[in-house]
Amino acid sequence: MKPFYLLGLLLPLQFMAVQPAAAKNCSLYRLNYEGAITQGIIQRPSLVRNARQSWHLFHVAMDRNDRMEAASRAAQYLVIISERNGTTAAHQARQQVESEFTSHYEKPVEVAMPMFEVILANSAVDCETNLAQRL
Q: How far apart are CA 72 and CA 115, in angstroms?
């Protein structure tokens, strides 16, 4: 009787360990963001429900003058936008993010938030190859 009971406990754990399919989406923003985390440039920020929450946390970090947190939240926001609305929308959102940095710190993005440029370095990346290597 006990082996069946234990099996009932293990099955829910297996379902919890499966990663959602959305985490495997490929965009340049996702690849650069995950690459920055893998290289130890930034720590993975806490999960958010949606882009709006990430945007809010980005502003909270800027208000606290926590530039690293602001940069990672901005990158997180752009990853969400790129995967839900496409790369064109993400590029437009990036312009908005950079405008927010510039107006808040009264300096160009490269000076106000150099880590942002490091996290989302523009690079030509083959999504299929990089995605296969990460799996």
A: 9
